[in-house]
User: Fold Protein-tyrosine-phosphatase from Maritalea mediterranea.
Amino acid sequence: MAAALARKYFPSELIARSAGVRSGQVDRFVHDVMEEIGIDMSVHTPHTMDELVATSFDLIVTLSEEAPAAVDAKNYEAGARLHWDVDDPTLEEGNREQRLDAYRALREDLTQRIKADLPAHLTGVKANGSQKS
Assistant:
């Protein structure tokens, strides 16, 4: 979700990749809540850190509790690192709408963090995501 949102708000300013600590399955709830805001995730397949070819990055953003240690173990180089402590919507119990609400909350949390935190790491972008003149 975070990589897709970063590409939406900063389409020509960055190359965003998503990789998890563990392998995962396609999550239909992710597809549904991203489609609500016009992002097509139908071609997205989850990837693990083991599948990354690059080992050097301008910025690494971690989302899970175990991700910072996994990044350290891989000896990735990064110009900057951010860790965002976010809620895991897969832990939400309840009916379909309650679970979707948890995914929507994560989507909105990530959107706010991306718009607030990424511009400082991108050249030519103001804090609100618009282009500097």
Summary: The helical segments are 2-9, 28-35, 67-74, 96-117.
